[in-house]
Amino acid sequence: DAMVIQNPRYQVTQFGKPVTLSCSQTLNHNVMYWYQQKSSQAPKLLFHYYDKDFNNEADTPDNFQSRRPNTSFCFLDIRSPGLGDAAMYLCATSRARGRAEAFFGQGTRLTVV
Amino acid sequence: EDKVVQSPLSLVVHEGDTVTLNCSYEVTNFRSLLWYKQEKKAPTFLFMLTSSGIEKKSGRLSSILDKKELFSILNITATQTGDSAVYLCAVSNAGGTSYGKLTFGQGTILTVHP
User: Fold this and answer.
1) Does the distance separating the beta carbons of A41 and B106 come in below 8 Å?
2) What average pLDDT does range B47-56 have in this prediction?
3) Average pLDDT, chain B
4) Which residues in B lie closer than 8 A to residue A100 (C-beta atoms)?
5) How many of the other CB atoms lie within 10 Å of CB of A70?
6) Do B100 and A90 touch (CB under 8 A)?
């Protein structure tokens, strides 16, 4: 089945230690998104790619970076995780610019110790 | 700033009850409203609404949008324990060349007891 896959499902990292979360998709969608969802809060968009064009939300901290080496893969890098970065990180795709429906991966729950 | 507000924040019912979840929004470039169901995993898509007054229906779930009053409701009839989840409402600006940012509400936690 075509889908969006995130790895790992659970990630524990130490305060200040760089961590990378990954997302892959078999849908061949042009647009990929990273959302952060803290406990009991709404998912919040961090950035998105339209093909290789990277778009950062204005309030996304510099500590968060992303890479999209090809259509299928997208990575979220957190350079120096703080306790406040503990959250569920959701990757999503949509078919093209202008298409509202987003397909989500299962998420990676990040714990910072 | 775009805002999506859902109510109630949580709801506890018994199997067989009917529930109505509410979503109101204030956004600068509305194109569509989407409902998602989130269990302990990825949000799964339920409905997308773009036109006022047209009900979308899927089994026991239905939803309608009022673009004049800026709200949507999600109805679930004859609830089952499997309906227990967080229901997320999101507004999209996707259309034309706009990429499709989803602005989410905080969700309604629905718990259905046997």
Assistant:
1) yes
2) 87
3) 91
4) 31-32, 34, 48, 92, 94-95, 100, 102
5) 8
6) no
